[in-house]
UniProtKB/TrEMBL annotation:
It comes from the Bacteria. Component of the lipopolysaccharide transport and assembly complex. Interacts with LptA and the LptBFG transporter complex. Involved in the assembly of lipopolysaccharide (LPS). Required for the translocation of LPS from the inner membrane to the outer membrane. Facilitates the transfer of LPS from the inner membrane to the periplasmic protein LptA. Could be a docking site for LptA. It is found in: Cell inner membrane. The keyword Cell membrane applies. Keywords: Cell inner membrane, Cell membrane, Membrane, Transmembrane, Transmembrane helix. Belongs to the LptC family. This is Lipopolysaccharide export system protein LptC. The gene is lptC.
Amino acid sequence: MNNEKIKKYAILIVSIFATILIIWQNSDNETPPSANIIADDEADFFIVKGQYTSFDEDGNLSSTMKSDEAKHYPKQNNAILTKPNLLVYREDSPPWRLTADMGQYDMNDENLTLNQNVVIIRNETLETPWTLKTESLTLLNKSRFITTKQPVTISDKTSILEGVGMNAWIDEKKVELTSNVRGYYAPK
């Protein structure tokens, strides 16, 4: 009986080992998903130290976007940006500056998604300007609307607001933190 248990365990171990070996051999022949995407849609051009300017319907300057590098992918019609730096203009006040480590610009919808160390500065001429920090956000350029579901910190000279999720309407000068909002106020 003791030999029967040993045989069963040996068969079980050999079966497990054989299954792992088969899976391992089959996985070597597969192309990683990211390689499929790259092979399927390779960059057709790139720009170093580029600038893209857009205007509103009346011909007024709407935004200026610069990046250290931009690669265009034709099938998705988007651009992957390194160190994007965007100025969004408003007719009655200083522009908003949006920066990040990485970005993706959808050329069909004119939406810009910023990732990693995202910062928005409003009226950067001030000594301590209004500043927003998050890890990811999307600017819907046509409607001039900004949104994120990530944690956000907003600070200025006298206060700090923290929350999770945000919606901002650039032209209406309205910012809404959507959940877990905490505020600190320290008048000078």
